[in-house]
Amino acid sequence: MLRNHFKIAWRNFIQNKTFSAINVLGLALGLASSLLILLWIQDELTIGTQYPNAPYLYRVMEHEIADGRIVTDEDTPGVLAEELKKQIPEVVYAAGFSSPEQHLFSVGNNVVKQTGNYVGADWLTMYDTPLLAGTRATALRSPNNLAISRRLADALFGTYQKAVGKSVRFDNYLDFQVTAVFENLPANAPDKYEFLLNWPLYLEREPWLQQWENGGPGTRLQLRPDADPAKVNAKLLTFLKGRNKDIDAHFNIQLFLQPETEAYLYSNFSNGHRDGGRIDYVRLFVVVAAFLLLIAGINFMNLATARSFRRAREVGVRKVVGANRASLIWQFMGEALLVTLLALCLALVLVNMLLPSFNLLTEKQLILPLNNPLFWMLLLGLLVLTSALAGSYPALFLSSLSPIRVLKGTLRFSAGTQVFRRGLVVFQFVLTMLLLVGTIVVYRQLQYIQNKNLGYDRENLIKISGEGGLAQNYRTFKQELLQLPGIQNVTHIQTNPLENGNTTDGVHWVGKDPTSAIQFNNTWVGYDFTKTMKIKILRGRDFSPSFGMDSANYLINEAAAKRIGYKDPVGQPLTFGRTAGKIVGVLEDYHFNSLHVAVRPLIIRLAETWNYDNILIRTAPGQTKQALASVEALYRKFNPKYPFTYSFVDTDFQALYKSESIVGTLTNVFAGLAIFIACLGLFGLAAFTAEQRNKEIGIRKVLGASVGSIVTLLSGDFLKLVLVAIVIASPIAWYATRGWLQGFAYKIELEWWMFVLAGLLAVGIALVTVSFQSIKAALMNPVKSLRSE
Q: Per the UniProt record, which residue ranges are transmembrane (predicted)?
């Protein structure tokens, strides 16, 4: 019986090559797209969960409650980790974790610049980092200890086996001893580093982090397996009271735990509440994968139902000779399974071919896990689900046909069947319309971000690190830079000009409410900061060497001026910490953080020399390439032992929105695939409709109907369905895209033309697809179609 069913299925597949090819190709593209998305989703879901101790690992987060709002971040006091181990019995291990830093390592003639972190001694144990040499317990116990990756060890020593116990020169002024070599971190590791340094050394370098009122680094901890996180959270709620002198009734910092397994996916907080993050993209692409499978499955369902006339007599004969409905259902479901199996095999080939490009686009290292039994179970599930989705309705419909009506030749599609088929086409194009609108909105938002006036000119602006000899010789370096052709201005800034996370509430002015604690962003800059950045000064002046007291004075932005409340702020007193000075200038608000957040109050202080900062160089338009060569030569003169590295601020700006850019590109790709798959089905239906109405078309042409009128007749029904889909999809698309845009403080407005454009695209694509078959049918010689009459 099974063999007979298979033979019949294969014969039908071969006899209807066009429709079989449409079904297989449509399902293959839907399955391949879904598999790529599922591999991406699986990788996203595993980030932070791959550690053996993952269920017991937590990040200590802070709710800073001040000025009527709650700001949540991971910036904690540098001494918090050790205190938690002493005071909370449930904490087994705890470690501080600094922001990533780039440093220079040299062994003989081998010089390498890499990124890494300062961490507490428990780090390697907590995260169970695979060690190739050394021991976790002792690797970072002393200030001169250094743990490095296999990659860094190979670069410095030729092979990691030679590294342990050897000395490494650090930034050309310190010597460290390699005490451990760890395996290169996987591509999906949430924290990426090539070296780890001792935590007490970090606190010694940054003594302000030893004060409880200051925050900056992160704190990670591991709880006992039997510990209750809720009880630990209750202890953390008021842990800083009595330790942080800034905490009072009007400014409060509440600590809480975020599981390591959730930190990557749920990184966004809004006014103290978890507000999505990468999980939003995971959910989005789950929906996209479902859309693609549905569209492909609907193609199969529609074409199989439309062609049921061809199978009707077969069903009638089978029923007359004794076949029951169950056996017929199994036969047609088996045919759907065969088509889906062929499509799945083709999909696997496509995925294997496309994975390198997909990895390049998403910056991941995904592979087809063919050795994983769970992957084959997933494929089996997809096979069963897709074949059931695609073949269920045609099987039920065909098996329900009456043998008497079929064999008498009186079979007609019922109104319900026609409504169902049209409904499937409408549903397909509703999904397609949603993807089209999403593509347009994402593209427009990314264009808005890239072209938005940030309050400064990011073009022709180069950033280099003020490391090594540049920090001590900055003034001379600047003077010589300005003598080079193509260099317009030079300055420096303590923080990244695009990401300023420094905040303080220690700002005071005349008339300030003593019970309020207002958060200000702050940074240090050098002379010519506003000229180099091309920031507009609204009132007052920039810092100038002509004013000797400017080291105690301040520049503020518009947001800070509004918050302070001076009617005319220039010349008014302002105190930052213990430094009393005056406001010398008010700057136009410029974006010193991502466009996801609104511009916050900013205070800028002057420090013409400062370690660990960034030097900004403004080049003349069209002369950047020549200027860079001159800058590199001068850099090597001042910093001969450091490799010359630089970045363009506009490139760094675009990197801030890499996730959105990747999502935008993926949306474009999958929207295109969805349209193509939907059009395959429409093409098949149009071909079948033209075939069914072959004689009608011949009669109309004999009676004088024009080609245009026949094309209009055949295309009209399909275009009506597409228009219905546009009407249904538009409000759904508005709601969905509006929700996505809420994640940006600065965003485009949803406009009517976006939905009209998406609708016109859908209509145009559908019209082109249907018209091909319609014109072909209209041009056919009526003699051929009417010959049997």
A: 21-41, 281-303, 336-355, 375-398, 419-443, 669-690, 702-732, 752-772
For 766, phi then psi, to 5°, come to: -65, -40
Give just the sign of the alpha carbon dihedral 229, 235, 236, 238: positive
CB of 197 closer than 8 Å to CB of 102: no
Count of alpha carbons within 13 angstroms of residue 154, beta-carbon side:
8
Residue carrying the six token digits 């540049």: 470
**What value does the mean pLDDT take over residues 656-669?**
82
Closest-CA residue to 253 (of 241, 267, 269, 271): 241
Name the residue with higher pLDDT: 449 or 479.
479
Residues in the chain: 789
pLDDT tens per residue across span 335-351? 778 888 888 899 999 99
Give pTM, 2 decimals.
Answer: 0.81
Q: Are 213 and 245 within 8 A, CB to CB?
A: yes
Written as six digits, the tokens of 193 are: 């580093």
Q: What is the dihedral of CA 442, 444, 449, 451, to 10 degrees?
A: 160
**What letter represents residue 190's amino acid?**
P
Give 371's Cβ-side CA count (13 Å radius): 1
Give the β-pairing of 195-198 and 110-119: parallel
Q: Quick one: what percent of the chain has pLDDT higher than 70?
A: 84
Question: Residue 406 class from Cβ within 10 Å (0-12 exposed, 13-18 middle, 19+ buried)?
Answer: buried
d(CA 366, CA 353): 12
Could you please report the per-residue DSSP string of 101-170? EEEEEEETTEEEEEEEEEE-TTHHHHTTPPEEES-TTTTTSSTTEEEEEHHHHHHHHSSGGGTTT-EEEE
- What does the alpha-carbon distance between residue 491 and residue 258 come to, in Å, rounded to a whole number? 39
How far, in whole angstroms, is CA 720 from its chain's centroid?
Answer: 37
b/e map of 234-263 (b: 16 or more CB within 10 Å)?
Answer: eebeebbeeebebbeeebbbbbbbbbbbbb
- Tens digit of each residue's pLDDT (9 = 90 or more) over 741-778: 887 778 889 988 999 998 888 888 888 777 776 676 66
CB of 553 closer than 8 Å to CB of 543:
yes
CB 642 within 8 A of CB 451: no
Closest C-alpha to 73, from 524, 604, 519: 519
Strand pairing of 145-149 and 174-182? parallel
Find how far residue 599's CA is from the centre of its chain.
23
| Integer Cα distance of 774 and 690 in angstroms | 7
Q: Is 271 helix (H, G, I), strand (E, B) or coil?
A: coil
